[in-house]
Amino acid sequence: MFADAFSHLPHLRDKVTPPERSELRITPSVLAFWDERARGLGRPPDWRLSDKELEDSRSAVLDTLDAGQDLWVFSYGSLMWDPGFHFAEVRLAELEGYKRRFTFKTEIGRGSPERPGLMLSLERCLGNCKGLAFRIPSAIAEVESAVVWRREMIRGSYRPALMPVGTAQGEIMALTFASNPAHPSYVGELPLAETAALIASGSGLLGTNRQYLEQLAAQLQRLVIEDTYIDRLMKHVQLLADDRTAK
């Protein structure tokens, strides 16, 4: 980790997992392990995008950057507390025209065939989404962006693009992963009660869907970011937990 990475947000210094301790730093060896686990679970060889598909999609977006240009990554979900990549700076950031929503059914990671969960994404809206922007220095952008790509684009659920993002230190162009409605796992925005029920029961190799929601809510609170959708989901999920305890 770079010494000055948290100069804008010093209170996050011990609230962001260092890449060397991250279970989501997806190196080629980690991806090979995931492939092995997938085979053991009976998943088909095409359970994820091929290495070539991943690299082709990465090149299509990032080859537009000028040589020697740093790469900014906008984060709105788990990247906010466990980015998995090395970075030199982090800022509060705001992306206009999008909102957080759980819109993808998942049976891997925080879900399973027996207990499917929902994956967070960015959906178009009239408002905005507040999160974090991480700056990856140009000298390591090739390696670190590949780490990000193996994680975020493993199943092609998102549409990656460089988008204008506002920060207190000035506007930047940041790599952003918005939803891909054409993906077969896309379910759109479900009724809040149905969303909460799936999150309350979802569980997979990376833990429970509820834990993810709780980590998200906690990081938003630390950043003093208000998100009524997440707040309402937290209340619904807690009510479901209370009902199950009462029974």
What does the secondary structure layout of this molecule look like, with pairings?
Blueprint lengths: L27 H13 L10 H12 L8 E5 L13 E18 L10 E20 L1 H15 L5 E8 L6 E8 L12 H10 L1 E2 L2 E2 H14 L5 H19 L1
Parallel strand pairs: 1-5
Antiparallel strand pairs: 1-3, 2-3, 4-5, 6-7
Helix pairs in contact: 4-6, 5-6
Characterization of the model:
This protein has 247 residues and is α+β, with helices and mostly antiparallel strands. The protein has one domain (10-246): Gamma-glutamyl cyclotransferase-like (Hypothetical upf0131 protein ytfp). The protein is built from six helices and seven strands. The strands form two sheets. It has a five-stranded mixed β-sheet. A hairpin with a 2-residue loop joins strand 6 and strand 7 (207-208). It is globular and about 60 Å long. The model has no long low-confidence stretch (mean pLDDT 94).
Would you tell me the overall average pLDDT?
Answer: 94
Unreliable residue runs = none
Helical proportion, percent range: 25-40%
CATH class identity: Alpha Beta
Instruction: State the fourth-level CATH superfamily.
Output: Gamma-glutamyl cyclotransferase-like
Describe what is shown at a glance.
With 247 residues, the protein is of the alpha+beta class. 34% of the residues lie in helices and 26% in strands. The mean pLDDT is 94.
Features:
alpha+beta; 26% strand; two-stranded antiparallel ribbon; 247 residues; 7 strands; globular; 6 helices; Hypothetical upf0131 protein ytfp
